[in-house]
Amino acid sequence: MPAQSQFEQLILASGSPYRQLLLQRLNVPFEVYSPDIDESPLENERPLELVSRLADQKSATVAGRFPAALVIGSDQIAVSGERIVGKPGSAARAREQLRDFSGQSIVFHTAVTVRCQVNDFLFERTVDTEVRFRELGEAEIERYVEQENPIDCAGSFKSEAAGICLLRGLVSDDPTAIIGLPLIAVSEALRLAGCRLP
């Protein structure tokens, strides 16, 4: 961490390679520690409540082990209407999701919590991204899933890669939020915590 920071280290509480690549853009040294938490929704928990709670729980779990560290926890949920859209897990399910989304819009809620236990530092933010899909033909859905195999991505597409071709628009205050970590919000949190960026 920069010398003027009041924190011993910066930790990303995530095993996601996408979030790690995003955080590297800020050119600050950080470590990775994957929290082991139950991500199941609570009874009657709404999507925004769930994503905020999971981001908070991830950061709190790791901060409990490293109380002098500044810890970043993040979570993301895709929603179609009131229905949570999960990761497809298989090529067949990815094709099914993309058929459902053809010509439709879904919303990604990306929550981030940044905290340090010993200094009572806490920053919380949720960034929404509306994803507008084109009308998709069966052949292009088949080609896309075969090329990118997006089975570990909610919504079955990767906006940072060829998945952008499936869309007619993205609406968000932060273009990095859709990939899994809203860097504008994270940058704000790090500055408030005493880090000099850039």
Mean of residue pLDDT?
94
Helix content: 25-40%
Terminal-residue CA separation: 13 Å
Helix and strand succession?
EHEHEEHEEHEH
Q: State the low-pLDDT regions, or none.
A: none
The shape, in one word, is elongated
Count of separate DSSP helical elements: 5
Summarize the biggest pleated sheet.
7 strands, mixed
Broad structural category: alpha/beta
In what range is the share of β-strand residues? 25-35%
Number of strands: 7
C-alpha-based Rg, rounded: 17 Å
Structural summary, described in words:
This protein has 198 residues and is α/β, with parallel strands linked by helices. 30% of the residues lie in helices and 25% in strands. Strands 1, 2, 3, 4, 5, 6 and 7 form a 7-stranded mixed β-sheet that branches. β5 (105-116) and β6 form a beta hairpin. The protein is elongated.
Summed up, what is this model?
The protein is of the alpha/beta class and about 200 residues long. It is about 30% helix and about 25% strand.
Question: Which helices and strands, and how do they pair?
Answer:
Blueprint (H helix, E strand, L loop, with lengths): L9 E3 L4 H8 L6 E2 L14 H19 L4 E11 L2 E3 L5 H11 L3 E12 L4 E13 L4 H11 L18 E6 L10 H10 L6
Parallel strand pairs: 1-2, 1-3
Antiparallel strand pairs: 3-4, 3-5, 5-6, 6-7
